[in-house]
Design brief:
The protein is mainly alpha-helical and 262 residues long. The chain has one domain. It is built from eight helices and two strands, in the order H-E-E-H-H-H-H-H-H-H.
Length: 262
Protein backbone atom coordinates (compact mmCIF):
# COMPACT_ATOMS: atom_id res chain seq x y z
CA UNK A 1 0.00 0.00 0.00
CA UNK A 2 1.07 3.57 -0.51
CA UNK A 3 2.28 5.41 2.58
CA UNK A 4 -0.65 6.52 4.71
CA UNK A 5 -3.27 4.70 2.64
CA UNK A 6 -6.02 3.10 4.72
CA UNK A 7 -6.29 -0.67 4.62
CA UNK A 8 -9.20 -1.65 2.42
CA UNK A 9 -9.90 -4.74 0.36
CA UNK A 10 -9.16 -2.88 -2.86
CA UNK A 11 -5.94 -1.32 -1.59
CA UNK A 12 -4.73 -4.66 -0.15
CA UNK A 13 -5.29 -6.49 -3.45
CA UNK A 14 -3.77 -3.62 -5.45
CA UNK A 15 -0.69 -3.62 -3.22
CA UNK A 16 -0.07 -7.34 -3.73
CA UNK A 17 -0.50 -7.06 -7.50
CA UNK A 18 2.11 -4.30 -7.92
CA UNK A 19 5.69 -5.06 -8.95
CA UNK A 20 8.94 -3.71 -7.58
CA UNK A 21 9.87 -1.68 -10.65
CA UNK A 22 12.84 0.20 -12.02
CA UNK A 23 11.65 2.99 -14.32
CA UNK A 24 13.86 4.74 -16.86
CA UNK A 25 12.52 8.22 -16.20
CA UNK A 26 9.20 9.94 -15.49
CA UNK A 27 6.46 8.44 -17.66
CA UNK A 28 8.91 6.06 -19.34
CA UNK A 29 7.40 3.18 -21.32
CA UNK A 30 10.21 0.73 -20.48
CA UNK A 31 10.27 -0.59 -16.92
CA UNK A 32 12.04 -3.50 -15.29
CA UNK A 33 10.15 -5.73 -12.89
CA UNK A 34 12.99 -6.28 -10.47
CA UNK A 35 11.10 -8.80 -8.33
CA UNK A 36 10.38 -11.01 -11.34
CA UNK A 37 14.01 -10.84 -12.48
CA UNK A 38 15.41 -11.47 -9.01
CA UNK A 39 13.19 -14.45 -8.17
CA UNK A 40 13.38 -16.12 -11.60
CA UNK A 41 17.17 -15.76 -11.87
CA UNK A 42 17.67 -16.97 -8.29
CA UNK A 43 15.53 -20.04 -8.95
CA UNK A 44 17.39 -20.69 -12.20
CA UNK A 45 20.74 -20.53 -10.40
CA UNK A 46 19.37 -22.79 -7.65
CA UNK A 47 18.28 -25.33 -10.28
CA UNK A 48 21.69 -25.28 -11.99
CA UNK A 49 23.53 -25.71 -8.69
CA UNK A 50 21.33 -28.65 -7.65
CA UNK A 51 21.81 -30.38 -11.02
CA UNK A 52 25.56 -29.73 -10.89
CA UNK A 53 25.78 -31.28 -7.41
CA UNK A 54 23.70 -34.24 -8.59
CA UNK A 55 26.03 -34.78 -11.56
CA UNK A 56 29.16 -34.52 -9.40
CA UNK A 57 27.84 -36.98 -6.81
CA UNK A 58 26.35 -39.43 -9.32
CA UNK A 59 27.65 -42.97 -8.90
CA UNK A 60 27.26 -46.15 -10.91
CA UNK A 61 26.94 -48.10 -7.67
CA UNK A 62 24.04 -48.00 -5.25
CA UNK A 63 22.50 -44.51 -5.64
CA UNK A 64 21.21 -42.49 -2.72
CA UNK A 65 17.79 -40.92 -2.40
CA UNK A 66 18.92 -37.61 -3.93
CA UNK A 67 20.36 -39.28 -7.03
CA UNK A 68 17.29 -41.49 -7.34
CA UNK A 69 14.99 -38.45 -7.26
CA UNK A 70 16.98 -36.59 -9.94
CA UNK A 71 17.26 -39.67 -12.15
CA UNK A 72 13.54 -40.38 -11.82
CA UNK A 73 12.66 -36.86 -12.97
CA UNK A 74 15.10 -37.03 -15.89
CA UNK A 75 13.92 -40.47 -17.00
CA UNK A 76 10.26 -39.48 -16.73
CA UNK A 77 10.78 -36.36 -18.84
CA UNK A 78 12.96 -38.20 -21.38
CA UNK A 79 10.21 -40.81 -21.78
CA UNK A 80 7.58 -38.09 -22.25
CA UNK A 81 9.77 -36.33 -24.84
CA UNK A 82 10.42 -39.59 -26.72
CA UNK A 83 6.67 -40.10 -27.15
CA UNK A 84 6.18 -36.85 -29.10
CA UNK A 85 9.63 -35.90 -30.44
CA UNK A 86 10.73 -38.13 -33.33
CA UNK A 87 14.25 -36.80 -33.88
CA UNK A 88 17.58 -36.77 -32.07
CA UNK A 89 16.91 -35.83 -28.43
CA UNK A 90 20.42 -34.86 -27.29
CA UNK A 91 19.45 -31.20 -26.90
CA UNK A 92 15.67 -31.37 -26.58
CA UNK A 93 15.53 -33.61 -23.51
CA UNK A 94 17.87 -31.37 -21.43
CA UNK A 95 15.86 -28.39 -22.69
CA UNK A 96 12.61 -30.06 -21.57
CA UNK A 97 14.07 -30.86 -18.14
CA UNK A 98 15.21 -27.24 -17.74
CA UNK A 99 11.82 -25.85 -18.78
CA UNK A 100 9.82 -28.17 -16.53
CA UNK A 101 11.90 -27.74 -13.38
CA UNK A 102 12.42 -23.98 -13.78
CA UNK A 103 8.76 -23.25 -14.52
CA UNK A 104 7.71 -25.56 -11.68
CA UNK A 105 9.98 -23.74 -9.21
CA UNK A 106 8.62 -20.35 -10.32
CA UNK A 107 5.05 -21.65 -10.03
CA UNK A 108 5.82 -23.09 -6.59
CA UNK A 109 6.40 -19.58 -5.24
CA UNK A 110 2.62 -19.20 -5.33
CA UNK A 111 2.37 -21.53 -2.31
CA UNK A 112 4.34 -19.16 -0.07
CA UNK A 113 1.98 -17.09 2.16
CA UNK A 114 1.21 -13.78 0.46
CA UNK A 115 2.14 -11.60 3.45
CA UNK A 116 5.37 -13.44 4.31
CA UNK A 117 7.53 -11.45 1.89
CA UNK A 118 6.16 -8.15 3.27
CA UNK A 119 6.97 -9.28 6.80
CA UNK A 120 10.51 -10.22 5.78
CA UNK A 121 11.05 -6.88 4.00
CA UNK A 122 9.81 -4.98 7.04
CA UNK A 123 12.12 -6.95 9.36
CA UNK A 124 15.09 -6.37 7.07
CA UNK A 125 14.74 -2.61 7.33
CA UNK A 126 12.21 -1.99 4.58
CA UNK A 127 8.54 -1.11 4.79
CA UNK A 128 5.27 -3.00 4.39
CA UNK A 129 4.50 -0.38 1.74
CA UNK A 130 7.26 -1.77 -0.52
CA UNK A 131 6.10 -3.72 -3.56
CA UNK A 132 7.39 -7.24 -4.21
CA UNK A 133 5.58 -10.01 -6.11
CA UNK A 134 6.98 -13.44 -5.49
CA UNK A 135 5.51 -15.43 -8.42
CA UNK A 136 7.44 -14.77 -11.66
CA UNK A 137 5.00 -16.75 -13.82
CA UNK A 138 2.14 -14.50 -12.67
CA UNK A 139 3.95 -11.73 -14.58
CA UNK A 140 2.97 -11.71 -18.26
CA UNK A 141 6.35 -10.18 -19.17
CA UNK A 142 8.15 -13.34 -18.06
CA UNK A 143 5.75 -15.79 -19.70
CA UNK A 144 5.90 -13.83 -22.97
CA UNK A 145 9.69 -13.78 -22.70
CA UNK A 146 9.75 -17.56 -22.36
CA UNK A 147 7.34 -18.03 -25.27
CA UNK A 148 9.32 -15.68 -27.53
CA UNK A 149 12.41 -17.80 -26.88
CA UNK A 150 10.43 -20.89 -27.91
CA UNK A 151 9.20 -19.01 -31.02
CA UNK A 152 12.79 -18.20 -32.05
CA UNK A 153 13.75 -21.85 -31.56
CA UNK A 154 10.84 -22.92 -33.78
CA UNK A 155 12.17 -20.65 -36.56
CA UNK A 156 15.69 -22.05 -36.10
CA UNK A 157 14.51 -25.67 -36.22
CA UNK A 158 12.42 -24.94 -39.33
CA UNK A 159 15.42 -23.46 -41.10
CA UNK A 160 17.86 -26.15 -39.97
CA UNK A 161 15.56 -29.01 -41.02
CA UNK A 162 14.24 -27.60 -44.31
CA UNK A 163 16.63 -24.86 -45.36
CA UNK A 164 15.59 -21.38 -46.41
CA UNK A 165 14.23 -22.45 -49.80
CA UNK A 166 12.42 -25.50 -48.43
CA UNK A 167 10.77 -23.42 -45.70
CA UNK A 168 9.71 -20.78 -48.22
CA UNK A 169 8.12 -23.43 -50.46
CA UNK A 170 6.27 -24.85 -47.48
CA UNK A 171 4.95 -21.42 -46.46
CA UNK A 172 3.77 -20.68 -50.01
CA UNK A 173 2.25 -24.07 -50.83
CA UNK A 174 0.86 -25.55 -47.58
CA UNK A 175 -1.92 -26.39 -46.98
CA UNK A 176 -3.89 -25.34 -50.09
CA UNK A 177 -1.31 -25.51 -52.89
CA UNK A 178 0.86 -22.88 -54.54
CA UNK A 179 -2.06 -21.28 -56.45
CA UNK A 180 -3.53 -20.08 -53.14
CA UNK A 181 -0.24 -18.85 -51.73
CA UNK A 182 -1.70 -15.61 -50.24
CA UNK A 183 -4.13 -17.66 -48.16
CA UNK A 184 -1.34 -20.07 -47.23
CA UNK A 185 0.81 -17.19 -45.96
CA UNK A 186 -2.06 -15.84 -43.84
CA UNK A 187 -2.73 -19.26 -42.32
CA UNK A 188 0.98 -19.78 -41.63
CA UNK A 189 1.29 -16.41 -39.90
CA UNK A 190 -1.73 -17.14 -37.74
CA UNK A 191 -0.38 -20.59 -36.89
CA UNK A 192 3.05 -19.29 -35.88
CA UNK A 193 1.75 -16.31 -33.88
CA UNK A 194 -0.78 -18.41 -31.95
CA UNK A 195 1.95 -20.72 -30.62
CA UNK A 196 3.80 -18.20 -28.40
CA UNK A 197 0.55 -16.47 -27.48
CA UNK A 198 -1.07 -19.69 -26.28
CA UNK A 199 2.07 -20.72 -24.37
CA UNK A 200 2.40 -17.42 -22.54
CA UNK A 201 -1.26 -16.68 -21.84
CA UNK A 202 -2.06 -20.18 -20.57
CA UNK A 203 0.76 -20.13 -18.02
CA UNK A 204 0.21 -16.50 -17.03
CA UNK A 205 -3.57 -16.81 -16.71
CA UNK A 206 -3.50 -19.88 -14.48
CA UNK A 207 -0.81 -18.56 -12.14
CA UNK A 208 -2.27 -15.06 -11.94
CA UNK A 209 -5.66 -16.52 -11.04
CA UNK A 210 -4.09 -18.75 -8.40
CA UNK A 211 -2.17 -15.83 -6.90
CA UNK A 212 -5.31 -13.70 -6.82
CA UNK A 213 -7.28 -16.39 -4.99
CA UNK A 214 -4.56 -16.66 -2.32
CA UNK A 215 -4.71 -12.86 -1.88
CA UNK A 216 -8.50 -12.98 -1.48
CA UNK A 217 -8.23 -15.83 1.05
CA UNK A 218 -5.75 -13.71 3.03
CA UNK A 219 -8.51 -11.09 3.43
CA UNK A 220 -10.73 -13.55 5.32
CA UNK A 221 -10.77 -13.69 9.15
CA UNK A 222 -7.67 -15.54 10.32
CA UNK A 223 -9.74 -18.35 11.87
CA UNK A 224 -10.89 -19.52 8.41
CA UNK A 225 -7.86 -18.52 6.37
CA UNK A 226 -5.99 -21.74 7.10
CA UNK A 227 -8.66 -24.30 6.12
CA UNK A 228 -9.57 -22.42 2.92
CA UNK A 229 -5.92 -21.64 2.14
CA UNK A 230 -4.90 -25.24 2.85
CA UNK A 231 -7.55 -26.70 0.56
CA UNK A 232 -6.69 -24.28 -2.23
CA UNK A 233 -2.95 -24.96 -1.77
CA UNK A 234 -3.50 -28.71 -2.14
CA UNK A 235 -5.49 -28.17 -5.34
CA UNK A 236 -3.00 -25.57 -6.57
CA UNK A 237 -0.13 -28.07 -6.31
CA UNK A 238 -1.78 -29.92 -9.20
CA UNK A 239 -2.07 -26.70 -11.18
CA UNK A 240 1.58 -25.70 -10.80
CA UNK A 241 2.76 -29.17 -11.85
CA UNK A 242 0.34 -29.44 -14.77
CA UNK A 243 1.16 -25.96 -16.09
CA UNK A 244 4.90 -26.67 -15.98
CA UNK A 245 4.34 -29.98 -17.78
CA UNK A 246 2.03 -28.43 -20.41
CA UNK A 247 4.51 -25.62 -21.16
CA UNK A 248 7.29 -28.20 -21.54
CA UNK A 249 5.31 -30.61 -23.72
CA UNK A 250 3.92 -27.93 -26.04
CA UNK A 251 7.46 -26.63 -26.55
CA UNK A 252 8.63 -30.12 -27.52
CA UNK A 253 5.61 -30.65 -29.80
CA UNK A 254 6.23 -27.33 -31.58
CA UNK A 255 9.92 -28.16 -32.11
CA UNK A 256 8.96 -31.57 -33.49
CA UNK A 257 6.42 -30.05 -35.88
CA UNK A 258 9.03 -27.54 -37.05
CA UNK A 259 11.19 -30.42 -38.35
CA UNK A 260 8.46 -32.43 -40.05
CA UNK A 261 8.73 -32.51 -43.84
CA UNK A 262 5.06 -33.09 -44.64
Amino acid sequence: MAQGESLTTASYVKHHLNHWQLSFGEGAFWKLHLDTLLVSISLGVFFLVVMYIAAKKATAGKPGGFQNAIESICEWIDSAVADVYHHQRNFVTPLAITIFVWVFLMNFMDLIPVDLIGWLIANLGGSHDDYFRLVPTADSNLTFGLSITVFLMIIYYNLSAKGGWGLLKEILSAPFGIMLFPLNIVFRLIDEIVKPLSLSLRLYGNLFAGELIFILIALLPWQIQWPFGGLWAIFHILIIVIQAFVFMMLTVVYLNLAQEKH
